[in-house]
Amino acid sequence: MKHVGILAHSAEGSALCYLAACHEGIRRLGPHQHPDITLDVIAMGKSMAAWEQFDLPSIRATLTQTLERLDAAGCDFFICPDNTAHLALEAGNTSLPLPGLHIAEVVADYALSRKFRSLGVLGTKWTMDGSIYRDAFDRRGLKFHIPGEADRELINATIFEELCGGIFREETKADYQRIIRDLARAGCDAVVLGCTEIPLLITPEASPLPVLDSTRLLAQAAVDVALGARTQPSWRGGKIRSVDVTA
User: Does the record carry Isomerase as a key word (predicted)?
Assistant: First the structure.
């Protein structure tokens, strides 16, 4: 089995991804069994000022330090359970120390396999306004939708002020459910939980639309790679230009 590296950025989502990978391993291999997993993190707080300035090279340099440590630990490939961080991983021309699965590619492939065609995306302001899901969807002919400006601001604020700190309020859940209902009325047939903390607030049972849980889909794809059911990824950062199921 291959050794999985988890490039963590925010704590709650990374912990969920780690547990999801362990649980997927147990489901497929039996009690107490899963691939080797190493999780490494440099506190997200060290990058928050850079995020507010949208200084992607600085953030990428910090994430690369984590990848260097995962490489030194013997990991064969990495996953990053932070959707927004992929904007930084895509920036720059130098190769990352390890190959990795790209979270938006994993989610887009899953959407295509389930015949979803028009998807709403929830996440940080950088994820919703940025290119990672737009590009992945465009390559597959999928439609991309995001909430209106006021709701994007609400989602971004609650991610950082509540979800990243392990705070999950019923009032916030109700707001997200309303926003998802609005996406359904706009013609979406599914919603991407494109921040790895959102699945801790919105479960499939609580969502007005079918959910694409980016955290758990990434964990499942990582176990696929580790067990040889999915090709070893070749992506080492930078923009993805064509559909590649190994990315």
Answer: yes
